[in-house]
Specification:
By secondary structure, the protein is an alpha/beta fold. Helix content is about 40%, strand content about 15%.
Amino acid sequence: MTRDPLRPLRYFWRIPLLLLHVLLGILLAAFVMSWNRDRVMKNGREPFAHRVIRWWSTMLMRIFGLRSVRFGQPAADPVLFVANHTSWIDIELLHSQRAACFVAKAEIARWPLVGWLATSGGTIFHRRGSNHSLSAVMQVMVDRLRAGRSVAVFPEGGTGHNGVLKVFHARILQAAVDAGVPVQPVGLRFARGGRRIVDAGFREDENFMQNFLRLLGGAPMDAEVHFLTPVPVSTDGRRKMAELARERIATALEDRAS
């Protein structure tokens, strides 16, 4: 692997900025999200709390050397966003463009500070492998969608490696059917010079902290958010909806001809 002589220098200035930004996030969560978290979009206008989430996430991406780039337009709230998943930073990447309630693994709720920040942002926690938990989570998703909040899910059921897009689990899309909202696929892609960098995500056997530190010291990249054409919602075609969403995301992840 090629040695990066600038990595120590990036740590030198990025770590202090990250600490200050996390402190700011704590203050915003305590004094803004605590009283404004349930506001919803009206007439296409984002509530103040959602704009704060987008700004904070965009700045966090910049500290990690990631320039958030949007392709296409997100549908107006409420919508179920369906995205591919390669790294923990995917949540912040999508949040940099649209605030949404994410469905995340229950372990995150117990993480020091991170769990509290995630809860403040409206995260819905799910215990993987538990059908009872999934049923409860889907009911919360339906309630949030009906209340006017958008929800975002990673239907692969976990992070993929080496650029592989795994099979999408269709059951999670039932929440959109029950709530009567659109399903919009979202392709999340890291790139330099237009070429996809699959190594930005988790490597095989790499844990959260290892990936976190590797990204923090890494060279700048573009972090692309591709809002794609919504898939038709069908009461008896969840599998077809999942497959079509996956196909559109797979196409968006491909390198484009120059």
